[in-house]
Write a structure and sequence with these properties.
By secondary structure, the chain is an all-alpha fold. The protein folds into two domains: about 45 residues, Orthogonal Bundle (Arc Repressor Mutant, subunit A); about 140 residues, Orthogonal Bundle (Tetracycline Repressor, domain 2). The protein contains ten helices and no strands. The longest helix has 24 residues.
């Protein structure tokens, strides 16, 4: 007690087992949400996918919304990591090439996360709009300023930096959100893991050749 005030107790740290249970629930929820969307998913489905009882799950998360919010925050942190690495000190074409490849690696390694994000956006982003208008917009504004700096320095041609970023998002995430279509159209000879390297080479040429100064 200090000056008549009682200090609030420090929050209790989760045990290893509690952390593992939460991770198990979130992994199961990712599978369920990415397949069914938020509205089509239930606590019962998530509990079944996690291999635990519904009361046990509710000990860790009180509502479906709490699970979804935690997943989306983790997803946004992961999804924005490649853009954060775009460095204004580096060579623009090298930096953009690395960004394209990192985004394709995410399409390859995190397809469920991409579908979960796409489902939320298609519904109007009712549960993550504060994240989009806050953290996401702030980061994109920052990197758009980097691209504008490259343009002013004559390192790349003048273009709209926001639509450049949108175009990279659209083309790279296509390989996650429409992977079934991509593999079916490419066929067995080209639809294997090599499709991501083929995509990287094509997108590098598409974007970087168009950005090189005359």
């Amino acid at each position: 007690m200090t000056d008549g005030f009682v200090e609030a107790p420090a929050p209790r740290r989760r045990t290893r087992i509690q952390r593992e249970k939460r991770d198990l629930i979130l992994e199961a929820a990712l599978e369920v949400f990415s397949a069914n969307g938020f509205r089509g998913s239930t606590i019962d489905q998530i509990a079944e996918a996690a291999g635990m009882s519904k009361p046990n799950l509710l000990y860790y998360f009180r509502r479906k919304e709490d699970i979804h919010e935690t997943l989306m925050q983790r997803l946004l942190d992961t999804w924005l990591a490649p853009l954060r690495e775009l460095d204004d000190v580096g060579d623009p074409l090298t930096e953009l090439s690395a960004y394209i490849r990192r985004k394709l690696e995410m399409a390859r390694d995190f397809p469920r996360e991409s579908r979960l994000f796409a489902n939320e956006i298609l519904q109007g982003a009712p549960r993550i709009m504060p994240l989009i208008e806050g953290e996401l917009k702030t980061l994109v504004d920052e990197k758009a300023a980097v691209v504008k700096g490259w343009m002013r320095a004559g390192k790349i041609v003048r273009t709209d930096p926001y639509h450049l970023i949108f175009s990279i998002w659209a083309t790279t995430q296509h390989y996650a959100d429409f992977d079934v279509q991509v593999r079916a159209v490419l066929g067995p000879d080209r639809g294997g893991d090599g499709r991501f390297e083929d995509a990287a080479r094509f997108l590098e040429r598409l974007f970087l050749d168009g950005l090189k100064p005359s």
